[in-house]
Amino acid sequence: MSAKFGQGRSDVHDADAPPQPHEQVRGFLARSTPSPDPWTADIATLRTDARERVLAVTGEPHPVVSVEAIDADGVGGRLYRPTGAERAVLIWAHGGGWIHGDLDTADGVARALANQGGCAVLSVDYRLAPEHPFPAGFDDVWTAVEWARRAFGGVAVGGDSSGGNLAAAAALKARDNGVEMAAQLLVYPVLDSTEDTDHKIAFKRRYAGFAGQPGYGPNTYRRLKHIWETYVPDPALRACPHASPLHAPSLAGVAPATIITAEHDFLRGEAEDYAARLRAEGVPVELREYAGQIHGFFEMFSVMTDSHHAVGVAGEALRRAFRHLDPNQSAKDIPCDH
Fold first, then answer.
1. 202 assigned to some structural domain
2. Total tally of structural domains belonging to the chain
3. pLDDT tens across 11-59, in order?
4. pTM as predicted
5. Which of 129, 111, 131, 136 is nearest to 121 (CA)?
6. Angle at the Cα of 94 (from 92 to 97), degrees rounded to 5?
7. Contact 278/255 with Cβ under 8 angstroms?
8. For the chain, counts of helices (H) and of strands (E)
9. Which residue, among 134, 143, 115, 123, has the nearest Cα to 312 in the 3D structure?
10. 88 phi and psi, to 5 degrees?
């Protein structure tokens, strides 16, 4: 199933039509100030800037019954419970290019997904590059999956951007290890380390001055190239399926997928390619594209109306994935660190 939402689109697949951002996107970009240059700024500066930008657009946190600090076999995280009686959990990996982002920047999305999905959400505090390059972050997410299998009756995995990459990779490993996974929720995921795909080359050209932002397309290309080099310094490892899930020889047998994309996103093409491969290999997949939107909109609750709709779509997918579980049966006791 594929569907498109939002405003500001003429034809999202017409390469000759000028990109038309959503009105809220145009306003957001007009108010935004430049980020520090990732090639010259130190990592602490980049992380502080990214953190402040995310927290400025997530809005007031959604209330949940409890938020607990968790030690998942040595991996830190926060466990969100919307009612306290959940038997299913979503393992959530935050975005940030594998180099920034933390439990605080993921807090708004984790709370919203817990409430909309009717399940617990374990937000994973995975290790970041460059201090901890691939496969450290992936290994942490997988450790959280294995911990959750012992604590809950149903497990799904999800993430946005680089977190979507980690979620897709975890779904692949679950299949290969015979681990049951209820669903994978991929929000504008990074799936392919290949630099010069047709999608990426076209984006650089077509988005050169997107929404009045000089160099938007080429700068996005350069940033993603830098992020890949930081996360996976060894070029030979970048085609590994756990680094680039689109390079997996087969996707057959992985968990059903819900993929959310933004029209004006550098990563949209690889998400569409991934969805097409999933369908061709017999995996149920729901592809939801938000017209007029940009990368990052999913967490912008105080800025983008579409973010609320998209989280609702994600929540519906989680409820479907976990509907076989008895909602009246109590969840297992969960150890926590306060």
1. yes
2. 1
3. 345 566 789 999 999 999 999 998 898 888 999 999 999 999 999 999 9
4. 0.93
5. 111
6. 140
7. no
8. 9, 9
9. 115
10. -125, 155
- Indicate whether 122 belongs to any domain: yes
| DSSP string for 40-77 | TS-HHHHHHHHHHHHHTTS-SPPP-SEEEEEEETTEEE
Q: Which helix (H) or strand (E) is 292 found in, with range?
A: strand 285-294
Confidence at residue 38, expressed as pLDDT on a 0 to 100 scale: 85
Band of residue 325 on the pLDDT scale cut at 50, 70, 90: confident
State how far the Cα of 325 lies from the Cα of 331, in Å rounded to an integer: 11
Q: Phi and psi at residue 156, in whole multiples of 5°?
A: -125, 165
Residue 154, judged by CB atoms within 10 A of its CB (0-12, 13-18, 19+), counts as buried
Query: Which of 259, 248, 255 is closest to 286 using CA atoms?
Result: 259
Q: Which among 52, 336, 315 is positioned nearest to 158, based on CA atoms?
A: 315
| Cα(70)–Cα(175) distance, integer angstroms | 26
Tallying the residues shown for the chain, one arrives at 338
pLDDT digits (tens, 9 = 90+) for 296-316: 999 999 999 999 999 999 999
Q: Is 10 domain-assigned?
A: yes
Please tell me the distance from the alpha carbon of residue 327 to that of residue 338, in angstroms, as a whole number: 27
Which tokens is 65 given? 């019954």
**Six-digit token pair at 338?**
């306060």
Whose tokens are 């605080």? That residue is 104
Cα 112-158-254 angle, rounded to 5 deg = 145
Question: Could you list the active site residues?
Answer: 161, 265, 295
**Does residue 134 register a pLDDT over 70?**
yes
Q: Which residue type is seen at 148? A: A
pLDDT of residue 337: 35
Q: Is residue 333 part of a domain?
A: no
The enclosing domain of 73 has a CATH number of 3.40.50.1820
In sequence order, the β-bridge partners of residue 285 are 257
* Structural domain containing residue 212: 2-321
Expressed in angstroms, the distance from the first to the final Cα of the chain is 42
How far is the C-alpha of 294 from the C-alpha of 302, rounded, in Å? 15
